[in-house]
Queue: 2 jobs
Job 1
Amino acid sequence: MFARKIKENVYWMGSVAWDSRLFDSLIPLPDGTSYNAYLIKGSEKTALLDTVDPPKADELMAQLGNIPRIDYVISQHAEQDHSGTIPKVLEKYPDAKVVSTPKAKGMLTDLLKIPEEAFITVKDGETLSLGDKTLRFVHTPWVHWPETMVTYLAEDRILFSCDFFGSHIATTDLFVTDEGRVYEAAKRYFAEIMMPFRNIIKKNLEKLTSYKIELIAPSHGQIYPRPAFILDAYRDWVNSPPKNMVVLPYVSMHESTKLMVDHLVAALVDKGVRVELFNLAVTDIGKLAMALVDAATIVVGTPTILAGPHPYAAYAAFLANALRPKTKFLSIIGSYGWGGKTVETLAGMIPNLKVEVLDPVLCKGVPTEKVFKALDDLAAAIAKKHVENGFT
Ligand code: FEO
């Protein structure tokens, strides 16, 4: 792809990664992704804002082919999908300075061996003049690493946000044209890497309220021509109470746990509780992460295998613990053959979750009427808790 003009002397560069299907060797990318860099030409100086993932370096370097001079390489985030091509850019423009937060300088030195003398570090709120264009750097830590910042181009009212507000979508549309599609991709992205830091993200959102923003240009996905769309979505994900919803990740080996899951789902729905069900043997964990953004309750369904939870259930518990959703209640259901420590093992895997554990329902072998009654009671307890807490 060639460089694309956004505004006068402001260009998109980078790579649209149509074929990428896994991010960080972990996160499914059903719609691919993009690595966005931005070129800003001032009347006196030229800045390149972020770079691209190293496997995409040739595309960025080709786009820079007829750019004679770069004065500044702004590194908003040290993670290599944005910073990894800085060394190649510096090879072409040896006089360019890398502009970053002080913390990012240390990380970029460690990760990419960029020499210390190449850096200019910027304080929170500091500005850098390119002549007729001015960059203001706003430190926004923990979106999603500790060193992150965003950059406000004052004259054009563009906020360059790196991972903040990003989405994994490969498309030729430079600007958001389908907000529904982007909402889902951005929520998935928020859930996977930002949800654990939402209290700090809330403060970062507040920091941005004083800026007049006409465009938000993230480093993954499309540019937002209607910033309120994504700002409002983030405020909802960060601030709103959990919803009247149960997320139910489960795995079943010989159908007994599945019978319990199906019964619990029916009982919950009957009591007016929404359920998002995920068969962990086949599920997309990005969808599971996204559902956790809103869930008031998690119920893990697992058989007992080798005296503990099924490894897929352990994985789901580990993931939920790492993502630290707003969830308030948790329970466990499942079938076992002769015994084990499924509940104790799973409960020990979620120290980060500030949840009340509701009575688990385990049964030996195939569930009986007594077990189904216990599941009805669990559904009733969940519905009652949701009502008491005002979750709607
Ligand atoms: Fe897109 Fe945290 O890197």
Job 2
Amino acid sequence: MTVLRSVILGCGSYLPERCLTNEDLAKTVDTTDEWIVQRTGIRERHIAATGELTSDMAVKAARAALAAARLDPQAIDLIVLATSTPDNTFPASAVSVQAALGITQGAAFDLQAVCSGFVFALSTADGLLKAGGFKRALVIGSETFSRILDWTDRGTCVLFGDGAGAVVLEAQQQPGASTDRGLLTSHLRSDGRHKMKLYVDGGPSSTGTIGHLRMEGRAVFKHAVAMITDVITDAFRATGYTADDIDWFVPHQANKRIIDDSAHKLGIAPEKVVITVDRHGNTSAASIPLALDVAVKDGRIKRGDLVLLEAMGGGFTWGSALVRW
Ligand code: ACO
């Protein structure tokens, strides 16, 4: 017996040219490189140029992912773009990506689950591919959080950056064993009781403005590790794998302390953890595919490796995915 699995054929990413270091930030807000590095692990982040849109970055990441997969855009019939910073309230930024790539078949839509967006998008695309209506998907995370930051609030503006990452997924028949390639399991959660701990204080139906990101940093930190470990335990339970079986842990890159604490609690060895938060900051839905691309390009993640993804973010939302690369 065989089963349909969503196999990752390639990944790609894009970072805007402008790099903003902690020292640069210390010139405009009351902070220091030492404070930021000690509390978050972040040293620098990239900021989109004036006029550079979420969809522009998504197109660049998508093209790189298609090149890695050796596919023409016409092979794609589904685009799921995870973002909380779309070009416009509507249409979805995904249709701009679709048009820029010259794709006219299939469907394209945005998905909003803040920092968990990429895991939610991967799981959504997987479900649609397995249902049989689509053959190949681009799953993209792209964000211009620089546009929703309050650059006078040192508690939040030092944490985030811009960028995009993408993967190409293809529905393939696999033997139905745990050694199959592709997405083996995914687990999504949300709990709206926490929605005011991390939110944007504007929107089309409330204020009619874009708004700025607001966060109770300590409260987010307190919940993050427990939520992350819970949903990874779900992935282990569903597959029978344990922390020892994982080749690479690619977490959402919010804060190095959250990542270290989660890995420690789960028993995942530090050398298996992919860290990019030092160079990228928190790029929300883009952080996981950006980190995946770094670890594939530098030769760490190889075909057949077991790769564990997780994310947690505003809502709260949180999720995990276990992938055989
Ligand atoms: N530079 C210098 N001092 C600062 C800065 C800064 N950039 N930001 C805050 N401070 C000050 C505060 O004003 C406060 O000063 P006070 O004691 O005089 O009042 C002091 O530092 C401590 O502030 P806290 O907010 O309590 O600092 P904390 O140790 O909690 O660190 C941080 C803040 C880094 C935001 C931490 O709470 C955190 O990482 N939380 C998780 C949030 C997160 O990662 N969010 C990302 C989105 S969600 C996600 O993706 C999972």
